[in-house]
Design a protein that fits this description.
By secondary structure, the protein is mostly helical. The chain contains 4 helices and no strands. α1 runs antiparallel to α2 and α2 packs antiparallel against α3. The radius of gyration is 24 Å and the shape is globular. About 5% of the residues are buried.
């Protein structure tokens, strides 16, 4: 009789609760991943749309390239790097895997720090004082906060 009660409790109470808990955890992770991915991809689209023909996968200044200071670039100098940082961090958090998070941050960090300073020096050489002034009003990865009114 006790065995029958234990089996009934397991089959009708414990197992469904465990399955619901697993489903909620799985669903929650996928929901966060889905929305963070959609947000990052939308941000990526906006950045590319604003850059237009000025975008290049390598460090180069194209002929007749102008300095873009509108849209997202009005607040952030390197929004594409911001988007990449967000993507790497979201991937690590959503996967709930410390290895993915740490390895992703270290890998992207190495790529970012070896590239961003060269890119800014190149922009200063080409756009001179205009880029230096732009640097004073914008943040590299996040908007600059101004406490003055």
């Amino acid at each position: 009789m006790a065995w029958h009660v234990l089996c009934t409790v397991y089959l009708h109470i414990y197992r469904p609760v465990k399955q619901i808990r697993f489903f909620c955890t799985f669903y929650h992770k996928n929901t966060v991943f889905c929305w963070s991915s959609i947000g990052c991809l939308f941000f990526f689209y906006i950045i590319h749309k604003e850059l237009g023909a000025n975008w290049s996968p390598i460090l180069e200044i194209k002929t007749k390239q102008n300095l873009i200071k509108t849209g997202v670039y009005k607040y952030i100098r390197h929004p594409m790097y911001t988007q990449s940082w967000l993507w790497v961090i979201f991937q690590g958090i959503v996967s709930a895997n410390w290895f993915v998070l740490i390895f992703g941050v270290l890998t992207w960090g190495f790529m970012y720090f070896t590239r961003v300073f060269s890119e800014e020096n190149m922009m200063i050489e080409v756009f001179n004082e205009e880029y230096v002034e732009y640097m004073q009003h914008t943040g590299r990865l996040l908007p600059k906060l101004s406490w003055r009114r």
